[in-house]
């Protein structure tokens, strides 16, 4: 998971928490709300709410947050539990689709807004075009959650002072993993600067190599190859080579 994905997930969780503070769990109809049956035990409303009658108990299901920012519920259908995205349930029941378009677009760009009036059936090209128009598919320094500017990325890649990954991370206030991904071109791909080739990675300083060998404990979660790689901004393969160089085993 890169820095964008981590921050996107964090912001999505914050938005979801804010929504749940006033999400109506009452089984009474809201003004202008209409329901359509779905399966044997459920009803879906044009407001994006799902009502359950499973086992004779009437209640509004509280949706969970999908990792991609969509709301979803688990419904018992055909003898087993199945996950449904709420926006797709609403669209299938309330929005005609005469051209049989495969995807659903949130008109306002908000994936938590599943009112029927905010949804429309679209082709993949139309969906991507809308995302571009509302700024949902911006990447690199133009991404709304970006921590670095184009100039900062260039400075990190060119690194005229020869700073280590840890020093760069401290200087720019980011995780060492972010610095490593920037230098290797895994993120901020269009921001410029000299991208480091994997075969030309600078040698890890001797003091850091000694620290890694000292801290490495293969059966300890916080001191495994992956954990140390993330901590010091190198790859797990690099940690493994450092630990076992000269046939030294820890």
Describe the overall structure:
With 250 residues, the protein is α+β, with helices and mostly antiparallel strands. The protein folds into 3 domains: 3-133, Homing Intron 3 (I-Ppo) Encoded Endonuclease, Chain A (Alpha-Beta Complex); 141-200, no CATH class; 206-247. It has helices at 3-20, 86-94, 124-133, 150-158, 165-172, 176-184, 206-215, 225-232, 236-244; strands at residues 35-38, 42-45, 50-52, 59-60, 64-65, 71-77, 80-85, 103-106, 119-122. It has a 4-stranded antiparallel beta sheet, with helices on one face. A 3-stranded antiparallel beta sheet has the order 5-6-7. Helix 8 (225-232) packs across helix 9. The model has no long low-confidence stretch (mean pLDDT 83).
> How many β strands by DSSP?
9
Largest sheet: 4 strands, antiparallel
Strand order in space, largest sheet: 1-2-3-4
CATH topology of the largest domain: Homing Intron 3 (I-Ppo) Encoded Endonuclease, Chain A
- Mean pLDDT across the residues is 83
Helix/strand/pairing class, anyone?
alpha+beta
| Count of alpha/pi helices | 9
Q: What is the CATH architecture assignment of the largest domain?
A: Alpha-Beta Complex
Strand content: 5-15%
Number of domains: 3
Estimated radius of gyration: 25 Å
Gap from first CA to last CA: 29 Å
Helical content stands at 25-40%
Contiguous runs where pLDDT drops below 50 for at least 5 residues: none
The ordered H/E elements are HEEEEEEEHEEHHHHHHH
Approximate shape = elongated
